[in-house]
Amino acid sequence: MIKQHDLLAFSLANPTHAEKKVEDYEFAEVSLLETGIVTIEPKQKAQISLVLSAGIHGNETAPMEMANDILKDILDEKLACSVRLLVIFGNLPAANIGKRFTQVNMNRLFSGAWQKEEGFEAQRAGLIEKTIADFFNEGPDSAQRIHYDLHTAIRGSKYPKFVVYPYLHERPYSAEQIGFLEASGIEAVLLSHQSTTTLSYFSSEQHNASAFTVELGQVAPFGENDHSKLTAIRHTLRTLIKDEKLIGSHDGNMKIFQVIDGLNKDADDYQLNIDADFENFTSFDAGFKLTQSQLSEYLVKQDGDALVFPNAKIPVGQRAGLMVREVALSSLELN
Ligand SMILES: [Zn+2]
What we know:
Largest sheet: 13 strands, mixed
CATH superfamily of the largest domain: Zn peptidases
Low-confidence stretches: none
Bound molecules: zinc ion
CATH topology of the largest domain: Aminopeptidase
Structural class: alpha/beta
Mean pLDDT: 96
Number of helices: 7
Strand order of the largest sheet: 1-2-3-5-4-6-9-7-8-10-16-15-12
Number of domains: 2
Shape: globular
Radius of gyration: 20 Å
Number of strands: 16
Order of helices and strands: HEEEEHEHHEEHEHEHEEEEEEE
Distance between the termini: 42 Å
Helix content: 10-25%
């Protein structure tokens, strides 16, 4: 069905469309639903429905290579698959040209936002939403729903491996997932504070999945990724797939940050007072003038407050960054 079980090579060669194919393996039914989208339905009853998505930004290649290796080992029957599994490669046309996207940033198009846009990314985002909805709905009611949306970042980070935990609207955080993320080598968790149009928020909010945007270091072209940096998460994901087991670590080494302020570009002359090679989660002393414009300035409120996702090259009215502050795990409501 897929030559040499290499979904990534197949999908890059067929970036916009592939005919649906279903193949019966001894252990599972394997379906290529569209290009870059495969489901595995084990013959034995599964307790976990797992979505692994990668390449929602086309140039973020390391997670695509990692997910591809996992899928290849399953199809080669080198890795048993006990979970229901959906693998998605998001933006293949962009991946082919080494770009984040071709027309629109796909990770701003979920929870229906794609309906207001045109072009490949919008169409693909709609298809990905429907695929995830069908996948979760077709699983047993009792199945635990999990979605890791895997990325790498353009900008450096004090914590190269970190996750964004989507806003939960009063639902408790998952202690089991936090333990799994720590065991996966994730160094920091950023607790989102509002609804967004990201893919992980879509799965969390609309499908009640434990879902995360997982940042796994910096962007590099296909074939140039240092996969030794991903040893821990490769191991935890493979164990999850093989044994339906979430390995947990609770050493307390993982930092947790909550958003305290959004920085908004309020005028054309808005300025962020940071270096060009600024790393996410860099902290400041209280009183530092972080932004200024003809209408406002932002002074850092407390020693140690840190900045993530800074970007002043945006239209007036959009978000120029998030101010975050470390919080203790014990202060969170966990289930
Ligand atoms: Zn990304």
